[in-house]
Every structure is written in structure tokens, then in C-alpha cells.
Amino acid sequence: DFIQMFVRKLRGEDEEEELLIDYVTKEVNNMTVKMPYQCFINGKFEDADNGKNYDTINPTDGSVICKVSYASVGDVDRAVAAAKEAFDNGPWGKMNPRDRGSLLYKLADLMEEHQEELATIESIDSGAVYTLALKTHVGMSIQTFRYFAGWCDKIQGKTIPINQARPNRNLTFTKKEPLGVCAIIIPWNYPLMMLAWKSAACLAAGNTLVLKPAQVTPLTALKFAELSAKAGIPKGVINILPGSGGMVGQRLSDHPDIRKLGFTGSTPIGKEIMKSCALSNLKKVSLELGGKSPLIIFSDCDMDKAVRMGMGSVFFNKGENCIAAGRLFVEESIHDEFISRVVEEIKKMKIGDPLDRSTDHGPQNHKAHMEKLLEYCETGVKEGATLVYGGKQVDRPGFFMEPTVFTEVEDHMFIAKEESFGPVMVVSKFKDGDVDGVLQRANDTEYGLASGVFTRDINKAMYVSERLEAGTVFVNTYNKTDVASPFGGFKQSGFGKDLGEDALLEYLKTKAVTVEY
Ligand code: NAP
Ligand code: MG
What we know:
Blueprint: H1 2-11, E1 23-28, E2 31-36, E3 39-41, E4 44-46, E5 53-58, E6 63-69, H2 73-88, H3 91-94, H4 97-113, H5 115-126, H6 130-149, E7 159-160, E8 170-178, E9 181-185, H7 191-204, E10 208-212, H8 219-230, E11 238-240, H9 245-254, E12 260-264, H10 267-281, E13 284-288, E14 293-297, H11 303-315, E15 325-331, H12 332-348, H13 367-382, E16 386-389, E17 404-407, H14 414-417, E18 424-430, H15 435-442, E19 450-454, H16 458-467, E20 472-475, E21 494-495, H17 500-506, E22 508-516
Parallel strand pairs: 9-10, 9-12, 10-11, 12-13, 14-15, 14-19, 15-18, 17-18, 19-20
Antiparallel strand pairs: 1-2, 3-4, 5-6, 7-8, 8-22, 13-21, 16-17
């Protein structure tokens, strides 16, 4: 039909090339899920060139879901060459921006058609609670593609008055141009959403990309690759390589033909990547790194809301949330009431199979992460913080961790300083009325990703939000991210925004053209 013809034309193919996919098929969550498991290079699914693969694990019971290709340095080089060819000579580079937008809308529609399947795959590979996966992991990914699809034909430069070279006249105008081949390296906490946040902006700007998902959560990225091909995104524009950070990630950072690297992950790895990007070819980088976001709760808050959102700030997505509140500062006069209400609510949380629609809290993403969290809690206890609730592994198969609450946490303690990235609430008191004191403590961290404040006093809220050193400040809410609002950190939480117009600029360069007439 017409759409298919259009798609074939955009892909530069006269005859429809059959996309051959060797799926792993599973009956799960009352549906059949079809999962590609090979590297996606130049529009084709294929084994890693050395034939290696590895097991991806379901954290709900520790079982193997399937084997996944383990990409090599040779695969990276082939993928980058394909992305370069697609950018330099393929239909993508010549396409009208509005047509590029149409393809991205088509991709978002296909993701929506497959949202239950994507959410199911996300749930079994990452332990995300299915209902949340549907709404957030997959739902926000779809919204992200729609949002950036709309930007494609609105990427504009400026006309700039410069000094004239009399008697002639001059005009300078700027153009926003794509950078070329981009690399994207992402973590495991929101596997598809992290892919979407970076890829959608990257593609809307007109670039081509090679993406490495986290080793422990490769499956939704590969399903996305399939949908991108079905949407008619030309071959070579999107390449997905499951594999290790040390090999695939390192080669991407070093590669001379890559012009930009977008990274979300830990601060230490972010520093390594930036160093490699600088030494290889000075590629542009954006880094979304760790956080230890403070949440300040004043006694004049709406207590019901503060309890509900305070819990969400920590336990959302089992605490595997980059903007999770790493530290709660609660004003002394409401401290005990706040804690007892939080504990009461935790007892009502249903821990269990993430595919069960009534589950609130699923397994941690993978075994090593759960073990690190248990150690984190042991350290908290050893240092003398009060363990009010949890701190242990749940007695059932899989990698479940109890929602945990620590109080009496002092500023020098490990758990006051280091990110857990798990369901661990770390609470400290502050003296009644000591706004500047609590601000000083909240800012006494090298991180600066997010922050929050609960108070009914608008002046206090404005004062505090002005002084918090963080890329995001939530006032009387938390976790309220939106595709249209820029997201990213200050200080050692990195630089360069995801989402919003700012994200687009991360994937563009500005050319100034000066004309004399
Ligand atoms: P990580 O160890 O930094 O890994 C992130 C990604 O980098 C993975 O794909 C990893 O590959 C890869 N990688 C590892 N070493 C590399 C190297 N030498 N060169 C290139 N890539 C390399 O982080 P994580 O433990 O998976 O994720 C948790 C961290 O991410 C937390 O600190 C969290 O705060 C942060 N995070 C931040 C945001 C944000 O928006 N700011 C969002 C989510 C998460 P492997 O698969 O082999 O590990
Ligand atoms: Mg997994």
C-alpha cells in the first residue's frame, strides 16, 4: 500500500527487503512475546562476529530468559561504519525534516501498538512492576518519541546583526546541523526509557546512532530495534549492540568516527568516558550521572502528601531511580509522626511477582545490585544509624529487598553521602525553623541531580528552591518528570540535559554563515 511504498522509498529500497528475525518466543503475562536477541547492525539482526553470547536473567526468580549476542570491538566498528554511511550517503541524511518527523511518529505508534509486549519484556528482564513499566518505562518512552518527532521541522537558527564592511553590507545567519554518528551508553534502571530519552533527541536532530544497552537489560532495546526497522527508519541509522561497558562502551568512547557520546550511568564511569572522548577525537559528551538528592520536609507541609510523595521519592521503581531522594531532612517537630506513618504505609506495600497487577514492589534489577544494597544497609547499622524497618533480603526466590528506613543518620556517615540506588530511605532531623542550616547540609554533596521541598509557605519554597544546588527542584511534588522539561544534573551529577528543547541542542552544532552583499 501507499505507506509501505513511502517507507520503502525513504529506506532507499526498490523492493521490500524482508527483515529476517530469529526470535526467542515466550508465553508470559498472558501473551506471546517475541524477542530478538542478536546485535542489530545496518538494519539486520546478526550474531556477534566472534559468535559469543551470554545469558540475560529474570530477577524475579534468577532464571535465564535467553541468550543474547555479546558484541565485540569488531561489531562496534561495523556498526559505526554503517551509521557513518547512513549519515553521509543514505536517505536519512537527505530526508526532509518533516519526513524524518513522520518516521519518528510512526515509530512511536508502533511502540504503542506493542506497549504490552514491551512492558512485559521490560518486566521480566529488569524486574520493573508491570503496571509501572506500562505507564512509565514504556509510556514515557512513547511520549518522548512523539515529543521529539514534533521538533524535527522546528530546528531553527537565527539572523544576527553584525558590523557592516562599508560600503557593502553583511548578514550573518546560523544553522543548526546534526553532529553525525553518535554513541549512546545507558544503564539498567529504565532500560527502554533511557534509550528513548537520548535516542529520540539524537534522531530528531538528524544524527545516526550506535547504542549500547546495559549488559543486564538488553531485551527492550533489541525489540525497539525491530520496531524501528518496521517503522521504516533506514538501515544504519539505528544500531544496537548488547555487550560489556569495558569493551563495547570503551570502543565507542575511543572511536574516531563518533562525534558525540551521550551517557547515563555512574559518576566514576562518566569520568572515564569523558577522558577517553577527549583523548581520542575530542568528541562532544553529555553525562547524566549519579545523585544523592536531598528532600526537605518542613513541619508546615501537607503531611498526607509529604508521606505519600516522600515514599515515592525513595521507593519508586524499587529505588532504582536516578533522581531518588537519597536523603530526607525532616523538621524535628514532625519527624516522629512522619516516620511512624511511613512505616505504617510500608507494611501495606505488596512485595511480589512484578507481573502481578497488585504488586507494588518488585525484585531489584540483578543479583550483584541486591548484594550491594544489603551491604549498604549493614554499613548503615555498623555506623550507628537506627534501622527502623527492613534492611534484609526477602525470604523468597529472586532478588527481592525489603523497603528499608534508617533514621538518626548523621552527616559524616557513609549512607548520608553515598547513593544506594535501592529502596533505602535515609532520614535526618533538622532543628525547627533552621532553614539555612538544612540548606547548607542539603548542598553539602558533590552531587546535584535533583532535590525537593515540602512546605505550604510559598516564600519558604521559593527561597529554598533558589538555593538548592540541583538541576531539578520539586516543590510539593516528586518524580514529576515530563518529556518537555529539561532533566540533568549540576556538579558531579554531570552536564548536558535530556528531554525538552535543551536535549535537542546536545545533538546539534551551530554553523554561522556570513554573507557580504
Ligand atoms: P555504570 O556502571 O556507570 O554503567 C552504565 C553504563 O556504562 C552501562 O551500560 C555499562 O556497561 C557502561 N560502562 C561501564 N564501563 C564502561 C566504560 N569503561 N566505558 C564505557 N561504558 C562503560 O552505572 P550502573 O551501575 O549501571 O547504573 C547506575 C548508575 O547510573 C547510578 O549511579 C545512577 O545514579 C546512574 N543513573 C543516572 C541517571 C541520570 O539521569 N542522571 C539515570 C539513571 C541512572 P555494563 O553493561 O557492562 O555495565
Ligand atoms: Mg536482566
